[in-house]
TrEMBL record:
GO terms for molecular function: ubiquitin protein ligase binding. Pathway: Protein modification; protein ubiquitination. The mammalian APC/C is composed at least of 14 distinct subunits ANAPC1, ANAPC2, CDC27/APC3, ANAPC4, ANAPC5, CDC16/APC6, ANAPC7, CDC23/APC8, ANAPC10, ANAPC11, CDC26/APC12, ANAPC13, ANAPC15 and ANAPC16 that assemble into a complex of at least 19 chains with a combined molecular mass of around 1.2 MDa; APC/C interacts with FZR1 and FBXO5. In the context of the APC/C complex, directly interacts with UBE2C and UBE2S. Interacts (via cullin domain) with ANAPC11 and with UBCH10. Interacts with NEUROD2. Interacts with FBXO43; the interaction is direct. Residues 491-690 form the Cullin family profile domain. Gene3D superfamilies: Cullin Repeats, Cullin, Chain C, Domain 2, Winged helix-like DNA-binding domain superfamily/Winged helix DNA-binding domain. This is Anaphase-promoting complex subunit 2. Keywords: Cell cycle, Cell division, Differentiation, Mitosis, Neurogenesis, Phosphoprotein, Ubl conjugation pathway. InterPro entries: ANAPC2, ANAPC2_C, Cullin-like_AB, Cullin_homology, Cullin_homology_sf, TPR_ANAPC2, WH-like_DNA-bd_sf, WH_DNA-bd_sf. Together with the RING-H2 protein ANAPC11, constitutes the catalytic component of the anaphase promoting complex/cyclosome (APC/C), a cell cycle-regulated E3 ubiquitin ligase that controls progression through mitosis and the G1 phase of the cell cycle. The APC/C complex acts by mediating ubiquitination and subsequent degradation of target proteins: it mainly mediates the formation of 'Lys-11'-linked polyubiquitin chains and, to a lower extent, the formation of 'Lys-48'- and 'Lys-63'-linked polyubiquitin chains.
Length: 813
C-alpha cells in the first residue's frame, strides 16, 4: 500500500520556526499509526508523544488521521469500489456477479483497515494516557470514521449496488429455505431448468454452488458489520425480499380461503425466515451466540441480547407487515367473508387479531361501506337478499368488533336504504315467522325469546359501576349509546331501523290476517306459537289484537260446527243450496281489508242469507257483513267429455264459471256487468279458465265453453286453479294504501283550515295538524318534508294553489 498520501507535510508546526525534533517525532508517530508493523520501542513512542503534547500537537493526531482517511476515500477508495462493482453484467453469470460484489467489498475493507487499525491504536494511547496524550478514545474516533465512510460511499449510491445485493440475498434466501424449509418453499424460487436442477441455486446439480453462496453470505455479513455498513446496505434489499415473499405466500394460501386460520402457519414460516435473517446479520449476533437458548416459539432460531436485538426488530417488522398485508387482503374480501358467515368465522378471527395490531380500522370502514353501496344497495338486489347480508353482517361484525362500533358505522347506509323499500317490514316479518325462503336466522332468533330493546332507549341499570366503564373507539359515531348499551341482538337492530315496534306489529297483523283468511281447516297451531314467541319479544300488550284474531278463528270453527249441526237436522227441502263455511272477524281488531266490488250469483247469495239468519239466532243482537271477494271456493266442473273435481279457486273465478251454466258464451262486457267488477279484473280472472282449457276466447271478445278437449290437454290440467297472481295478492290493505287513506283524512283538515284562514304557510299547517289531528302514530311519523310532498301533489292536481310560500284553496266557479 502506498503511504505517500499519509505524509504529514501539510501540518504547520507551532512556534516561530521549524523544529527538526518535533517534525521527526510527528513523522514517527503518524507512521506508527498507519503502519501494521510497529516502528521503535514503546518507550520511544511515549517520549515522542510527550514531545508532541508539549508542543500542543497531540490533540491534532485524531483530526489528521480522519482527514487523511477522508482524502483517501475521496481520491481513490470510493471510485475504485464503484468501478469494481460496475463491471459489465451482461457478460457474467449470477455466480460471477456475486463474486464481483464480494470482491468489491473485500477490496474496500483492505483499503480501510490501516486507517481503522490506526484509529484503534490512537484510541488505545488516549485511553492509556501515554505520553500525556488525551482524547475521546477509540470508540468515538471510529464512529466518526464510520460516519465519514458512509457519507462518502453511500451519499448517492448507484442502483447497481442495490441490484447486486438484492439478487444475492434473494439467491441465499432460496438456498436457505430449500435446505431448512423443505419443498413447500420451492415455488418461491425463480423459474429455472426443469430437470436435474438444484432447488436452491437452479443450476445443474453437478454445478451446485448453494454451500458457496451461504459461505459468501457469511463473509459479506462479516465485512459489512466490520465497516458498520450492514444495516445501511442490507436493510432495503432484505425489506424488499420479505415484503415480496409475504405478499406472494399470502396470495397463494389465503386469497379466497375463509374457512381455516392461517396465523399459526404464518407464525411458523416467519420464524423459519428469521433463521435466514440470522445469517444475514450473523456478525452482529456472533458475540453472544454461544451461550444462547432457542427463542420461545421459534424453529431453532437463536435470538440474543445485544446483536439479537436486530433480529427482534426484524421479527417485529415482519409480523407488523404480515398483519398489514393480511388486513388489506381481507378488507378487499370482507363483503364475501360476511356473506359466507359463519363458514368464514376463521377469517374473521384472523382479521380481528391482525386489525388490533394495525391502524386500519378507518380503511376497513370506508371500504366496507363502499362495498355495501356498490354491491348491495341498488334496485337489482331483492329486499330479502339485502336483509340476509345485513343479518350476516351483524353476526360477523360483532365477532370482529364486540363494541359494535364498526357495525354501527357501516350499517348506516343499509338501514337508510331499507327504509326506502316498501316491502322491508313484510320481509322481516316473513323471516320472523319462517315464511321467507332460505332465511331461517330470524326464526331461530325469535325462538330465543329475548325482549326487543331499541337503541334509543336508555337503560337505568347501565353505568352503576364506574369501574366497568370503557370508552368507545375513536371512530364510534357520536351518539348517546355506549358499547354496552349498543344492542347486538339481530331482531332489535332490525326493529330499530324504523325506531318503532308498532310498525312491525301492524305488519305482522297483516301477514297473520292473510294466513288466517287462506286457512281452509281453521288450523292455527303454527300461528299461536308465533304469537306467543312475539309476545316474549314485543310484550303482551302489543300482541293483544293478534290474540283476538286467533280467538276469532276458534270461535268461527265452533260457530260453523253449530250451524252445520243445525243444518243436518233440516229436511232436504230446507237445506241451503250450497254448503257454506265462514270466518267471522271482529272488525275492530283486524287490519283493514281490501274492498272490491263483486256481485255473486243468486244461489250463493241465498246460501249467505241462510247462514246469516242462523248466525243471528246463535248470536242475538249481532249480524254479519259479508266480504264476497275474499275466501275460496271448492267446486267440480262437469264438461261433456271430462270432469274436473275438487278445484279450489277464488270467489270471482267461481262466480265467473257459474254464469256459464246459464249460457255457453258471454262477452267481457256482459260478465263485467253481471259481476259488478271492472273489465280488466274479469279478463284477468278468465285467463285462468282459458289456461285450463275450460273456456276459449274468439273474435269480438266473446268467451265460449270448451266441452271437448284434446287428450294432451286433459293430462296437463292441474287441480289447484289459483293462479300465481292470486297467490301473491294480499287480502289486507298495504301500509301505503292505509297511509294514503289517512293522508286523505289530513286533506279534510287542511281544507277546513284553509277555508277558515284563507292562506297558511307549510310550517303552520304542520303545526296545526300535530295539534288537532289525533290519528295515532301517523301524525308523529309525518314530518314537514312528507307534508310538503303531499301538498305539492294536491297543487299538481289543481286542488291547491301555492303562491309566495303560502297555500290557499282555488276559487270555485
Amino acid at each position: 500500500m502506498e503511504e505517500s498520501a499519509m505524509e504529514p507535510d501539510s501540518v504547520e508546526m507551532s512556534g516561530s520556526g521549524p523544529n527538526p525534533g518535533v517534525a521527526e517525532a510527528w513523522e514517527t508517530v503518524t507512521a506508527a499509526l498507519v503502519s501494521p508493523v510497529s516502528s521503535g520501542s514503546e518507550q520511544s513512542l511515549s517520549d515522542l508523544l510527550a514531545l508532541l503534547n508539549d508542543q500542543g500537537l497531540g490533540r491534532l493526531l485524531g483530526s489528521w488521521l480522519l482527514e487523511t482517511l477522508q482524502m483517501r476515500l475521496s481520491s481513490c477508495v470510493v471510485p475504485e469500489f464503484w468501478s469494481g462493482l460496475k463491471q459489465p453484467e451482461n457478460e457474467m453469470e449470477e455466480k460471477d456477479r456475486v463474486w464481483v460484489l464480494l470482491t468489491a467489498f473485500r477490496t474496500l475493507l483492505d483499503r480501510l483497515e490501516p486507517f481503522l487499525a490506526g484509529l484503534e491504536k490512537l484510541g488505545a494511547w488516549q485511553d492509556e494516557g501515554r505520553g500525556g496524550l488525551c482524547g475521546p478514545g477509540s470508540k468515538a474516533l471510529k464512529q466518526r470514521a464510520f460516519t465519514t465512510i458512509r457519507a462518502l460511499l453511500l451519499f448517492s449510491p448507484a442502483p447497481v449496488l442495490q441490484e447486486r445485493v438484492l439478487e444475492f440475498y434473494s439467491r441465499t434466501f432460496s438456498v436457505y429455505m430449500n435446505r431448512e424449509g423443505g419443498s413447500e418453499d420451492a415455488t418461491e424460487a425463480p423459474d429455472g431448468p426443469e430437470g436435474g436442477a438444484c432447488r436452491g441455486c437452479w443450476v445443474p446439480v453437478q454445478q451446485c454452488w448453494c454451500q458457496q453462496a451461504l459461505e459468501h453470505l457469511q463473509e459479506l455479513s462479516h465485512i459489512l458489520s466490520k465497516l458498520q455498513l450492514l444495516e445501511w446496505v442490507s436493510s432495503e434489499a432484505v425489506t424488499t425480499i420479505l415484503h415480496k415473499l409475504i405478499e406472494m405466500r399470502m396470495e397463494q394460501l389465503c386469497r379466497g380461503e375463509y374457512e381455516r386460520s392461517f396465523l399459526l402457519e404464518f407464525q411458523e414460516w416467519l420464524e423459519l425466515v428469521l433463521g435466514w435473517l440470522a445469517k444475514v446479520f450473523a456478525s452482529e449476533v456472533d458475540g453472544d451466540a454461544a451461550s444462547l437458548p432457542v427463542a420461545p416459539g421459534g424453529l431453532g432460531v437463536q435470538v440474543v441480547p445485544g446483536g439479537g436485538s436486530v433480529l427482534k426488530q426484524w421479527r417485529c417488522h415482519m409480523h407488523q407487515f404480515f398483519c398489514r398485508i393480511y388486513v388489506n387482503m381481507r378488507i378487499e374480501e370482507l363483503f364475501s367473508i360476511i356473506r359466507d358467515f359463519p363458514e368464514s368465522k376463521a377469517a374473521i378471527e384472523d382479521l380481528k387479531f391482525c386489525l388490533e395490531r394495525t391502524n386500519q380500522r378507518q380503511q376497513l370502514l370506508t371500504s366496507l361501506k363502499s362495498a355495501f353501496e356498490s354491491r348491495l344497495l341498488h334496485p337489482g338486489v331483492h329486499t330479502s337478499d339485502i336483509l340476509t347480508v345485513y343479518i350476516s353482517a351483524i353476526k360477523a361484525l360483532r365477532e370482529l368488533d364486540p363494541s359494535m362500533v364498526i357495525l354501527q358505522v357501516v350499517s348506516q347506509p343499509i338501514r337508510k336504504y331499507l327504509r326506502t323499500r316498501e316491502d322491508t317490514v313484510r320481509q322481516i316479518v316473513a323471516g320472523l315467522t319462517g315464511d321467507a325462503e332460505g332465511c331461517t336466522d330470524l326464526a331461530s332468533e325469535l325462538s330465543r325469546g329475548d325482549p326487543v330493546t331499541l337503541e334509543m332507549q336508555d337503560s337505568d341499570e347501565e353505568g352503576n359501576d364506574p369501574e366497568d366503564w370503557t370508552p368507545d373507539p375513536t371512530d364510534a359515531m357520536p351518539d348517546k349509546m355506549g358499547s354496552k348499551r349498543r344492542s347486538s341482538d339481530i331482531i332489535s337492530l332490525l326493529v330499530s331501523i324504523y325506531g318503532s315496534k308498532e310498525i312491525f306489529i301492524d305488519e305482522y297483523r297483516g301477514v297473520l290476517a292473510d294466513r288466517l283468511l287462506q286457512q281452509l281447516n281453521y288450523n292455527t297451531a303454527r300461528e299461536i306459537r308465533n304469537v306467543e314467541l312475539l309476545k316474549l319479544r314485543f310484550g303482551e300488550s302489543h300482541m293483544h289484537y293478534c290474540e283476538v284474531m286467533l280467538k276469532d278463528m276458534a270461535d268461527s270453527r265452533r260457530i260453523n260446527s253449530n250451524i252445520r249441526e243445525e243444518e243436518s237436522k233440516l229436511s232436504e227441502e230446507e237445506q241451503p243450496p250450497l254448503p257454506l263455511s265462514a270466518i267471522i272477524l271482529s272488525s275492530e281488531f283486524w287490519p283493514t281489508l281490501k274492498e272490491e266490488k263483486l256481485e255473486l250469483p243468486p244461489v250463493v247469495c241465498q246460501a249467505m242469507e241462510a247462514y246469516t239468519h242462523r248466525y243471528e239466532k246463535l248470536k242475538a243482537m249481532r249480524t254479519l257483513s259479508w266480504k264476497p271477494h275474499l275466501g275460496s271456493v271448492t267446486l267440480d266442473v262437469e264438461l261433456e267429455d271430462r270432469v274436473l273435481t275438487n278445484l279450489t279457486v277464488s270467489p270471482i273465478q267461481a262466480a265467473t264459471i257459474m254464469y256459464f251454466q246459464e249460457k255457453s258464451s258471454w262477452t267481457l262486457e256482459e260478465l263485467s256487468v253481471k259481476l259488478g267488477a271492472p273489465k280488466e279484473l274479469v279478463h284477468r280472472k278468465l285467463a285462468l279458465w282459458q289456461q285450463q282449457g275450460v273456456l276459449r276466447e274468439e273474435a269480438g271478445g266473446r268467451f265460449y265453453v270448451v266441452e271437448k278437449g284434446s287428450s294432451k290437454e286433459k293430462l296437463d290440467r292441474g287441480v289447484m286453479l289459483i293462479d300465481s297472481d292470486e297467490e301473491r295478492d294480499s287480502n289486507t290493505a298495504t301500509q301505503s294504501e292505509q297511509r294514503e287513506e289517512k293522508l286523505q283524512l289530513f286533506w279534510a283538515y287542511v281544507q277546513a283550515m284553509l277555508t277558515n284562514l284563507d292562506t297558511m304557510t307549510l310550517e303552520r299547517i304542520h303545526t296545526m295538524l300535530r295539534m288537532f289531528v289525533d290519528t295515532g302514530p301517523v301524525v308523529t311519523e309525518m314530518d314537514v318534508n312528507e307534508l310538503e310532498a303531499f301538498l305539492q301533489r294536491k297543487v299538481r292536481d289543481h286542488q291547491l294553489i301555492m303562491s309566495g310560500n303560502v297555500y290557499r284553496l282555488p276559487k270555485s266557479n
